[in-house]
Design brief:
Mean pLDDT: 96
Radius of gyration: 13 Å
Largest sheet: 7 strands, mixed
Strand content: over 45%
Low-confidence stretches: none
Shape: globular
Number of helices: 0
Structural class: mainly beta
Distance between the termini: 40 Å
Helix content: under 10%
Order of helices and strands: EEEEEEEEEEE
């Protein structure tokens, strides 16, 4: 079992930056790979970025490549999403998710993730 708590969301203007944090407690942090998803009203949760257990591999959806950076600090049990050059299309609730798998380290499908945070709102005004 692991508990995830996101923080760092807020209201910003286009072009600004935000850093989201996902603090974990419970089971050993380094046994999980993680993903950041985002969701807008009426739509499914979409994977934005993912990172493997030791931070050596990352994945980004095309729309955020070059703007977002996912990272983790296994000594602090915390995962991050640095978001730069934000635009209104990035407005969503952002969720961190933990995957407990030995056969994959990320999936674009939310159903493969085992634990979820409560979400943090990111709003980007034009």
């Amino acid at each position: 079992q692991v508990q995830l708590v996101e923080s760092g969301g807020g209201l910003v203007q286009a072009g600004d930056s935000l850093r989201l944090s996902c603090a974990a407690s419970g089971r050993t942090f380094s046994t999980f790979s993680f993903g950041w998803f985002r969701q807008t009203p009426g739509k499914e949760r979409d994977l934005v970025a993912a990172i493997n257990r030791h931070g050596g591999a990352t994945y980004y959806v095309d729309s955020v490549k070059g703007r977002f950076t996912i990272s983790r600090d296994n000594t602090k049990d915390t995962m991050y999403l640095q978001m730069n050059s934000l635009n209104p299309e990035d407005t969503a609730v952002y969720y961190c998710a933990a995957m407990d798998s030995r056969t994959m380290w990320y999936s674009e499908s939310a159903r493969f993730y085992d634990y979820w945070g409560q979400g943090t709102q990111v709003t980007v005004s034009s």
